[in-house]
Amino acid sequence: MAGTVHVSIDVNGVPREAEVEPRRLLVHFLREDLGLTGTHVGCDTSNCGACTCSVDGEAVKTCTVLAVQADGSSVTTIEGIGDEGDLDPMQTAFWEKHGLQCGYCTPGMIMASKDLLAHNPQPSEPEIREALAGNLCRCTGYHNIVKAVQEAAQHPRRGEAEPPPVSEEGRETAEEFAAKGTGA
Ligand code: FES
Ligand code: FES
Known about the structure:
Helix content is 35%, strand content 14%. By secondary structure, it is an alpha+beta fold. It has two domains: 5-80, Roll (Ubiquitin-like (UB roll)); 89-177, DNA polymerase, domain 1 (Orthogonal Bundle), CATH 1.10.150. A hairpin with a 2-residue loop joins strand 1 and strand 2. It is globular, with a radius of gyration of 19 Å. The structure holds FE2/S2 (inorganic) cluster (FES) (2 copies).
């Protein structure tokens, strides 16, 4: 294709080859060309951190990188760290500590948090807050995100912490709701 550049990028352990426009941002390559929509776009101006992924082992805001700059790199997105039934410890910790509400910031928060623990396995609370300063959350007030990172630091391996039965909360609420009647 005229005006395009061939790129070869390992994404979540899978070699991907593509022809991209030189101006194509890595985040758009991941989301639109590969369909990996777990990586979010909150601002496109490097402010929010929603697009954070791991590139060659470092947390990178993928809206700040061109796909051509990632040629030859290994990229890990939120889809690459765990899935239902086999969550990454950081995903489990966010679940357990209620480190999310709407979830829009969460993939980026989790990838940035994993990067922190990869470099500093036992961070202090100020270190956690500083490391996540480039990731914005409009919902949680950050306290439970910090607790989640602390929890993941305590349980860094899969299977060390069981996800709470979140559905129990829903069931309790439903039972309470049923007990009270619907008012209909
Ligand atoms: S979308 Fe990349 S930092 Fe906001
Ligand atoms: S959980 Fe909604 S923006 Fe963070």
